[in-house]
Design brief:
Elements lengths: L1 H57 L11 H29 L2 H27 L1 H15 L7 H14 L38 H12 L1 H35 L1
Helix pairs in contact: 1-2, 1-7, 2-3, 3-7
Membrane topology: Multi-pass membrane protein
Main location: membrane
Pfam families: Tetraspanin
Length: 251
């Protein structure tokens, strides 16, 4: 009986060592999975930011137009989303390598807020897309009023109409109130001094179609990033719990 009593502490110690070993292995596994997913997440952010920069450069000739112009608003949105994703991914990688609960919790909260913001933004755009389109068109029409007095805006509108072969925001008649019943020369083929019968297609719709036809791959990429975000949330919480469990065993 005495020997059995003396053996009990040794058994408990062995069980504790075994539990700590298993806990450490689980933590190590979750740590590297967390790092890999956050690395993919960070690279995804770089990709989004890069597409935003590319879109900004391709739309540089339209930079004087209001930000409600479809391609300009998409470029700014991608730049912001890419930048936040890169910072969040870096924070997650650092938290995983350092095994710090504070960094992991901060990463989890920021990423959760980011995911909720993205979902809310998608829902708002989907539900209120007609109202948003109408408001954007109104802002563009309002900006047309300073076409003759603002050289930068004039150049941007001329570049848009020449590139997309379109005229006006929703119709070529948008220019009649601005230019006293006439059309700008950019509404017609290159080399035309006076434009009488301009292109019939509206610029807002043409720019929107161009954006949708060129951004399909970005949308697929965005969905993949969304999946990685969800997995990163799960792994960050798992790692947080594993670190907490390991600290309790050490205590």
């Amino acid at each position: 009986m005495l020997r059995e009593f003396e053996a009990e502490p040794e058994v408990k110690e062995l069980q504790l060592i075994f539990r700590m070993s298993v806990s450490r292995r689980c933590l190590c596994c979750v740590k590297y999975l967390m790092f890999v997913f956050n690395l993919i997440f960070w690279l995804g952010g770089c990709g989004l930011f890069g597409v935003g920069v590319w879109l900004s450069f391709t739309q540089a000739e339209f930079s004087s137009l209001p930000l409600s112009f479809p391609s300009l608003s998409a470029a700014n949105l991608l730049l912001v989303a890419g930048g936040i994703t890169m910072v969040t991914g870096f924070l997650g990688c650092l938290g995983a390598l350092k095994e710090q609960r504070c960094l992991l919790f901060m990463f989890f909260v920021i990423l959760l807020l980011l995911v909720l913001t993205e979902v809310t933004l998608v829902l708002v755009i989907h539900i209120y897309h007609e109202k948003l389109d109408s408001k954007a068109q109104g802002e563009l029409k309002e900006g047309m009023k300073i076409y003759e007095s603002e050289p930068g805006l004039k150049k941007s509108w001329d570049n848009v109409q020449k590139m997309f072969k379109c005229c006006g925001v929703t119709n070529k008649t948008d220019w009649y109130d601005v230019l006293n019943g006439t059309l700008p020369s950019s509404c017609c083929s290159v080399g035309t001094d006076q434009c009488v019968d301009g292109w019939s297609e509206p610029c807002y719709q043409k720019a929107r179609q161009w954006l949708l036809s060129n951004i399909s791959s970005v949308l697929v990429f965005g969905v993949c990033i969304g999946v990685v975000q969800i997995l990163a949330l799960v792994f960050s919480m798992l790692m947080y719990c594993q670190i907490l469990c390991a600290e309790k065993h050490l205590d």
